[in-house]
Specification:
Distance between the termini: 37 Å
Shape: globular
Mean pLDDT: 80
Strand content: 15-25%
Radius of gyration: 19 Å
Helix content: 40-55%
Structural class: alpha/beta
Length: 277
Protein backbone atom coordinates (compact mmCIF):
# COMPACT_ATOMS: atom_id res chain seq x y z
CA UNK A 1 0.00 0.00 0.00
CA UNK A 2 1.44 3.41 -0.96
CA UNK A 3 1.99 6.17 1.60
CA UNK A 4 -0.96 8.17 0.26
CA UNK A 5 -3.35 5.24 0.70
CA UNK A 6 -2.07 4.74 4.25
CA UNK A 7 -2.67 8.43 4.90
CA UNK A 8 -6.23 8.28 3.54
CA UNK A 9 -7.02 5.24 5.68
CA UNK A 10 -5.61 6.90 8.76
CA UNK A 11 -7.49 10.09 7.90
CA UNK A 12 -10.72 8.10 7.99
CA UNK A 13 -9.66 6.81 11.40
CA UNK A 14 -9.35 10.36 12.68
CA UNK A 15 -13.05 10.85 11.99
CA UNK A 16 -14.03 7.90 14.16
CA UNK A 17 -14.06 7.40 17.92
CA UNK A 18 -11.01 5.11 17.79
CA UNK A 19 -8.56 6.53 20.33
CA UNK A 20 -5.35 4.88 19.11
CA UNK A 21 -3.71 6.75 16.25
CA UNK A 22 -0.10 7.62 15.54
CA UNK A 23 0.87 11.27 15.95
CA UNK A 24 2.43 11.39 12.48
CA UNK A 25 -0.99 10.93 10.87
CA UNK A 26 -2.45 13.79 12.91
CA UNK A 27 0.49 15.95 11.80
CA UNK A 28 -0.17 14.95 8.16
CA UNK A 29 -3.87 15.75 8.54
CA UNK A 30 -3.15 19.24 9.87
CA UNK A 31 -0.63 19.93 7.12
CA UNK A 32 -2.51 18.45 4.14
CA UNK A 33 -6.09 19.35 5.07
CA UNK A 34 -5.69 22.52 7.15
CA UNK A 35 -2.39 23.98 5.99
CA UNK A 36 -0.99 23.96 9.54
CA UNK A 37 2.57 22.68 10.00
CA UNK A 38 2.75 21.15 13.47
CA UNK A 39 6.48 20.51 13.02
CA UNK A 40 7.01 24.28 13.04
CA UNK A 41 7.62 24.86 16.73
CA UNK A 42 6.95 28.58 16.33
CA UNK A 43 3.28 27.80 15.69
CA UNK A 44 1.20 27.98 18.90
CA UNK A 45 -0.71 24.74 18.28
CA UNK A 46 2.56 22.83 17.85
CA UNK A 47 3.37 23.65 21.46
CA UNK A 48 0.53 21.35 22.47
CA UNK A 49 2.55 18.40 21.16
CA UNK A 50 6.15 19.59 21.61
CA UNK A 51 6.45 17.90 25.02
CA UNK A 52 4.15 14.95 24.36
CA UNK A 53 7.01 12.45 24.77
CA UNK A 54 7.20 13.43 28.45
CA UNK A 55 3.60 12.37 29.11
CA UNK A 56 2.24 9.07 30.33
CA UNK A 57 0.56 6.82 27.76
CA UNK A 58 -2.91 7.95 28.87
CA UNK A 59 -1.89 11.60 28.73
CA UNK A 60 -0.48 11.07 25.23
CA UNK A 61 -3.75 9.59 23.99
CA UNK A 62 -5.74 12.42 25.59
CA UNK A 63 -3.47 15.04 24.01
CA UNK A 64 -3.84 13.39 20.60
CA UNK A 65 -7.59 13.25 21.10
CA UNK A 66 -7.60 17.00 21.82
CA UNK A 67 -5.68 17.62 18.60
CA UNK A 68 -8.03 15.37 16.64
CA UNK A 69 -11.15 17.17 17.91
CA UNK A 70 -9.57 20.57 17.22
CA UNK A 71 -8.60 19.45 13.71
CA UNK A 72 -12.13 18.27 12.98
CA UNK A 73 -13.58 21.53 14.32
CA UNK A 74 -11.28 23.57 12.07
CA UNK A 75 -12.25 21.44 9.07
CA UNK A 76 -15.96 21.93 9.80
CA UNK A 77 -15.44 25.69 9.97
CA UNK A 78 -13.33 25.69 6.81
CA UNK A 79 -16.02 23.79 4.91
CA UNK A 80 -18.68 26.18 6.18
CA UNK A 81 -16.88 29.47 5.58
CA UNK A 82 -13.28 29.95 4.46
CA UNK A 83 -13.14 33.50 5.82
CA UNK A 84 -14.13 32.45 9.35
CA UNK A 85 -11.51 29.69 9.17
CA UNK A 86 -8.79 32.15 8.14
CA UNK A 87 -9.87 34.52 10.92
CA UNK A 88 -9.31 31.84 13.54
CA UNK A 89 -5.93 30.83 12.11
CA UNK A 90 -4.83 34.45 12.20
CA UNK A 91 -5.97 34.83 15.81
CA UNK A 92 -4.09 31.70 16.86
CA UNK A 93 -0.83 32.77 15.20
CA UNK A 94 -1.07 36.34 16.50
CA UNK A 95 -1.77 35.27 20.10
CA UNK A 96 1.06 33.06 21.30
CA UNK A 97 0.38 33.44 25.01
CA UNK A 98 -2.34 32.08 27.29
CA UNK A 99 -5.10 33.40 25.00
CA UNK A 100 -4.35 30.62 22.48
CA UNK A 101 -6.37 28.25 24.67
CA UNK A 102 -9.32 30.62 24.67
CA UNK A 103 -9.27 30.70 20.87
CA UNK A 104 -9.14 26.90 20.71
CA UNK A 105 -12.21 26.70 22.97
CA UNK A 106 -14.04 29.21 20.77
CA UNK A 107 -13.10 27.23 17.64
CA UNK A 108 -14.64 24.06 19.06
CA UNK A 109 -17.75 25.97 20.10
CA UNK A 110 -18.03 27.61 16.68
CA UNK A 111 -17.98 24.21 14.96
CA UNK A 112 -20.59 22.96 17.44
CA UNK A 113 -22.84 25.96 16.76
CA UNK A 114 -22.49 25.53 12.99
CA UNK A 115 -23.45 21.86 13.16
CA UNK A 116 -26.34 22.44 15.57
CA UNK A 117 -27.75 25.30 13.51
CA UNK A 118 -27.46 23.26 10.32
CA UNK A 119 -29.27 20.28 11.85
CA UNK A 120 -31.96 22.45 13.47
CA UNK A 121 -32.42 24.76 10.47
CA UNK A 122 -31.39 27.83 12.45
CA UNK A 123 -29.70 30.93 11.03
CA UNK A 124 -26.04 31.22 12.08
CA UNK A 125 -23.95 34.37 11.79
CA UNK A 126 -20.36 35.03 12.83
CA UNK A 127 -20.32 38.17 14.95
CA UNK A 128 -18.53 41.33 13.80
CA UNK A 129 -16.23 42.62 16.54
CA UNK A 130 -16.00 46.01 14.81
CA UNK A 131 -19.75 46.40 15.32
CA UNK A 132 -19.47 45.30 18.99
CA UNK A 133 -21.40 42.12 18.23
CA UNK A 134 -21.09 38.91 20.27
CA UNK A 135 -19.09 36.00 18.83
CA UNK A 136 -22.08 34.19 17.31
CA UNK A 137 -25.65 35.17 16.43
CA UNK A 138 -28.32 32.47 16.11
CA UNK A 139 -31.77 33.60 14.91
CA UNK A 140 -30.97 37.12 16.19
CA UNK A 141 -29.96 35.84 19.66
CA UNK A 142 -26.36 36.48 20.66
CA UNK A 143 -23.75 34.11 22.11
CA UNK A 144 -20.49 35.38 23.58
CA UNK A 145 -17.72 32.84 24.26
CA UNK A 146 -14.95 33.23 26.83
CA UNK A 147 -12.87 31.22 29.28
CA UNK A 148 -10.97 31.60 32.53
CA UNK A 149 -7.40 30.34 32.62
CA UNK A 150 -4.23 30.86 34.60
CA UNK A 151 -0.74 31.17 33.15
CA UNK A 152 1.83 28.63 34.33
CA UNK A 153 3.81 31.45 35.95
CA UNK A 154 0.88 32.48 38.14
CA UNK A 155 1.32 31.58 41.80
CA UNK A 156 -1.84 33.20 43.12
CA UNK A 157 -4.80 31.21 41.82
CA UNK A 158 -8.31 32.09 42.91
CA UNK A 159 -10.83 30.53 40.50
CA UNK A 160 -13.84 32.21 42.13
CA UNK A 161 -12.44 35.72 41.80
CA UNK A 162 -11.20 35.00 38.27
CA UNK A 163 -14.66 33.84 37.19
CA UNK A 164 -16.36 36.84 38.79
CA UNK A 165 -13.94 39.33 37.20
CA UNK A 166 -14.34 37.71 33.77
CA UNK A 167 -18.12 37.87 34.08
CA UNK A 168 -18.07 41.53 35.13
CA UNK A 169 -15.80 42.46 32.23
CA UNK A 170 -18.15 40.84 29.71
CA UNK A 171 -21.24 42.09 31.52
CA UNK A 172 -20.19 45.68 30.81
CA UNK A 173 -20.06 45.15 27.04
CA UNK A 174 -22.59 46.60 24.62
CA UNK A 175 -23.87 43.14 23.60
CA UNK A 176 -24.72 42.15 27.20
CA UNK A 177 -28.52 42.14 27.06
CA UNK A 178 -31.45 39.77 27.83
CA UNK A 179 -31.26 38.29 24.31
CA UNK A 180 -27.59 37.31 24.59
CA UNK A 181 -25.96 34.34 26.35
CA UNK A 182 -22.49 34.28 27.89
CA UNK A 183 -20.69 30.92 27.78
CA UNK A 184 -17.68 30.64 30.11
CA UNK A 185 -15.30 27.68 29.98
CA UNK A 186 -14.19 26.99 33.57
CA UNK A 187 -12.45 23.66 32.86
CA UNK A 188 -8.86 24.80 33.40
CA UNK A 189 -9.70 26.63 36.62
CA UNK A 190 -11.49 23.51 37.87
CA UNK A 191 -8.42 21.45 36.98
CA UNK A 192 -6.17 23.84 38.91
CA UNK A 193 -8.47 23.62 41.93
CA UNK A 194 -8.34 19.82 42.04
CA UNK A 195 -4.76 19.28 40.84
CA UNK A 196 -3.17 21.77 43.24
CA UNK A 197 -5.73 21.23 46.00
CA UNK A 198 -6.47 24.94 46.10
CA UNK A 199 -8.91 26.10 48.78
CA UNK A 200 -11.86 27.79 47.10
CA UNK A 201 -12.51 31.13 48.77
CA UNK A 202 -15.60 31.75 46.65
CA UNK A 203 -17.55 28.72 45.45
CA UNK A 204 -19.19 28.38 42.05
CA UNK A 205 -22.62 28.63 43.68
CA UNK A 206 -21.60 31.85 45.46
CA UNK A 207 -20.36 33.36 42.20
CA UNK A 208 -23.57 32.30 40.45
CA UNK A 209 -25.63 34.13 43.08
CA UNK A 210 -23.66 37.33 42.44
CA UNK A 211 -24.04 36.86 38.69
CA UNK A 212 -27.80 36.50 39.03
CA UNK A 213 -28.04 39.84 40.85
CA UNK A 214 -25.78 41.77 38.48
CA UNK A 215 -26.24 40.12 35.07
CA UNK A 216 -27.31 42.01 31.97
CA UNK A 217 -27.15 38.81 29.89
CA UNK A 218 -30.22 36.66 29.44
CA UNK A 219 -28.34 33.58 30.57
CA UNK A 220 -24.83 32.61 31.66
CA UNK A 221 -23.57 29.08 31.04
CA UNK A 222 -20.52 27.92 32.99
CA UNK A 223 -19.05 24.97 31.10
CA UNK A 224 -16.75 22.18 32.27
CA UNK A 225 -15.20 19.78 29.75
CA UNK A 226 -13.44 16.55 30.62
CA UNK A 227 -11.98 13.46 29.02
CA UNK A 228 -13.45 10.13 30.00
CA UNK A 229 -11.69 6.79 29.54
CA UNK A 230 -13.70 3.57 29.54
CA UNK A 231 -11.54 0.64 28.48
CA UNK A 232 -10.06 1.50 25.07
CA UNK A 233 -12.54 4.32 24.41
CA UNK A 234 -11.67 7.97 24.95
CA UNK A 235 -14.49 10.51 24.78
CA UNK A 236 -14.90 14.21 25.44
CA UNK A 237 -17.81 15.14 27.65
CA UNK A 238 -19.07 18.33 29.17
CA UNK A 239 -21.77 19.81 31.32
CA UNK A 240 -23.08 23.30 31.95
CA UNK A 241 -24.22 25.18 35.02
CA UNK A 242 -26.79 27.77 33.86
CA UNK A 243 -27.74 31.06 35.48
CA UNK A 244 -30.93 32.58 34.02
CA UNK A 245 -31.96 36.19 34.29
CA UNK A 246 -35.59 36.96 35.01
CA UNK A 247 -35.43 39.11 31.86
CA UNK A 248 -34.09 36.36 29.58
CA UNK A 249 -35.99 36.48 26.30
CA UNK A 250 -38.26 33.61 25.39
CA UNK A 251 -36.44 33.17 22.07
CA UNK A 252 -33.01 32.80 23.68
CA UNK A 253 -34.24 30.39 26.35
CA UNK A 254 -35.95 28.19 23.76
CA UNK A 255 -32.84 28.03 21.57
CA UNK A 256 -30.64 27.06 24.50
CA UNK A 257 -32.96 24.51 26.08
CA UNK A 258 -34.37 22.97 22.89
CA UNK A 259 -31.25 22.94 20.71
CA UNK A 260 -28.12 23.25 22.82
CA UNK A 261 -28.98 21.74 26.21
CA UNK A 262 -31.08 18.62 25.87
CA UNK A 263 -32.09 16.06 28.48
CA UNK A 264 -29.88 15.16 31.42
CA UNK A 265 -26.56 16.86 32.06
CA UNK A 266 -23.47 14.67 31.62
CA UNK A 267 -22.08 13.17 34.79
CA UNK A 268 -18.58 11.98 35.62
CA UNK A 269 -18.26 8.29 34.78
CA UNK A 270 -15.30 5.96 34.31
CA UNK A 271 -11.74 7.31 34.61
CA UNK A 272 -12.09 11.08 34.35
CA UNK A 273 -9.54 13.74 33.45
CA UNK A 274 -10.59 17.40 33.62
CA UNK A 275 -8.97 19.44 30.86
CA UNK A 276 -5.86 21.36 31.88
CA UNK A 277 -5.72 23.44 28.69
Amino acid sequence: MCDFEVYINKLAEIFTEKPKIEMKYIIEYYKNELGIDLTDLSHPISKKISSISDFSEKEKEIKKHHLRILGLALMDIKNYNENIYKTYLKRIVNNKNISIHGHIFEIKECAHFIETCRNANLDFKFGDANLKEPDFIVNNSGFEITSIRFSEATNEINPGNKLLNTFRNKNAKKYANPNCALIIDISEATYQTFEKNIPVSMSLNEVKEIMKKEMNFGVILCLIEWTEINGDNINFKGTVYPVYSENCTKELKEIIEDKFIKGQMNEFNGETFISSN
